[in-house]
C-alpha cells in the first residue's frame, strides 16, 4: 500500500506541469515585453561561431539595433541585412537573394525596439499561432509556457517561453510544407548574460540547419546607419 502511494505521488509530481494553472496569452506577452524593457538594450554586437549544416564552426559577427535593423557578416563572405522585418543576403559572388520570412524572427526579440505586448500578440497572429491553446512543457532542464500547441504537438506554429524568466526558448513556424524551429538556448551564460542566448539554432522538420554559439557581446560601440544599408537587389 505504501509503495503504491509513493508511486502515485511520484506520478503526480511528474505530471505537475500539465496540471498547473496556465495564464492567458495576454499576460504572458506582457511579461515577455517587460523582460525585454528591463534589459534596456539599444544595440548589440555579438561574436558568433556558426556551423551551417553540421560543418566545422567558423567565426561570424552579428550587429543588432533596436530600430529593427540587423547586419550579419557570415564566414563564407556573404552579408545579411535585415530591415523592416525582411532580410536579404548578398552572397560571396555578389548576387543578392531574399531570405525566407522567418529569417528575421531569429533576431526580432533583440532588434525590435517596439517589443510591446501588443506587438508580440500581432506577431503571433501573423504567424498563425493559436493563442487560445497553451500549456506547460519541459525544454531541456527548464519548464516552459507553450503558446499555440499541446505538449505533444510539434507540427503547429508555437512559441515557448521560460516559465520563470519569460525569455523566449523556441519559436516554431510554417515555411511552405515544413516546420522551422528557431531555438534560443543558454540564457544567463557567463559570456552573454540575458542580453543574448549562449546559442542560436535553426531546425527544419526536426533536422539541424544551423548552430551558432555566442562567444562575446558588446553594447558600447558606434553603429552608424551605413552599416545596415540593404544590398541592391
Description of the structure:
The protein is of the alpha+beta class and 233 residues long. It has a single domain (21-228), classed as outer membrane lipoprotein receptor (LolB), chain A, CATH 2.50.20. It is 20% helix and 37% strand. It has 5 helices and 13 strands. It has helices at residues 2-14, 16-19, 25-39, 108-111, 117-126; strands at 43-52, 58-65, 69-73, 79-83, 86-90, 96-98, 134-139, 142-147, 158-162, 168-175, 178-185, 199-204, 207-218. Strands 6-5-4-3-2-1-13-12-11-10-9-8-7 form a 13-stranded antiparallel sheet. Strand 3 (69-73) and strand 4 form a beta hairpin. The radius of gyration is 19 Å and the shape is globular. The termini are far apart. The model is unreliable at 5-16 (pLDDT under 50).
Give me the secondary-structure topology.
Layout: H1 2-14, H2 16-19, H3 25-39, E1 43-52, E2 58-65, E3 69-73, E4 79-83, E5 86-90, E6 96-98, H4 108-111, H5 117-126, E7 134-139, E8 142-147, E9 158-162, E10 168-175, E11 178-185, E12 199-204, E13 207-218
Antiparallel strand pairs: 1-2, 1-13, 2-3, 3-4, 4-5, 5-6, 7-8, 8-9, 9-10, 10-11, 11-12, 12-13
Helix pairs in contact: 3-5
Amino acid at each position: 500500500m505504501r509503495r503504491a502511494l509513493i508511486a502515485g505521488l511520484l506520478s503526480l509530481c511528474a505530471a505537475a506541469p500539465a496540471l498547473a494553472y496556465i495564464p492567458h496569452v495576454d499576460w504572458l506577452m506582457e511579461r515577455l515585453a517587460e523582460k525585454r524593457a528591463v534589459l534596456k538594450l539599444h544595440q548589440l554586437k555579438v561574436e558568433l561561431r556558426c556551423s551551417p549544416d553540421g560543418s566545422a564552426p567558423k567565426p561570424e559577427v552579428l550587429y543588432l539595433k533596436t530600430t529593427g535593423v540587423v547586419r550579419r557578416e557570415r564566414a563564407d563572405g556573404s552579408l545579411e541585412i535585415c530591415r523592416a522585418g525582411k532580410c536579404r543576403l548578398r552572397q560571396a559572388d555578389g548576387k543578392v537573394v531574399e531570405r525566407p520570412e522567418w529569417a528575421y524572427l531569429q533576431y526580432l526579440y533583440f532588434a525590435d525596439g517596439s517589443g510591446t505586448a501588443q506587438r508580440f500578440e500581432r506577431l503571433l497572429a501573423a504567424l498563425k499561432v493559436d493563442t487560445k491553446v497553451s500549456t506547460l512543457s519541459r525544454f531541456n532542464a527548464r519548464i516552459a509556457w507553450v503558446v499555440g500547441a499541446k505538449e505533444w504537438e510539434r507540427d503547429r506554429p508555437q512559441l515557448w517561453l521560460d516559465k520563470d524568466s519569460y525569455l523566449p526558448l523556441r519559436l516554431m513556424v510554417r515555411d511552405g510544407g515544413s516546420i522551422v524551429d528557431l531555438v534560443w538556448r543558454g540564457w544567463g551564460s557567463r559570456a552573454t548574460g540575458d542580453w543574448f542566448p549562449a546559442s542560436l539554432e535553426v531546425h527544419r522538420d526536426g533536422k539541424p540547419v544551423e548552430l551558432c554559439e555566442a562567444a562575446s557581446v558588446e553594447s558600447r560601440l558606434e553603429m552608424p546607419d551605413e552599416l545596415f544599408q540593404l544590398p541592391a537587389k
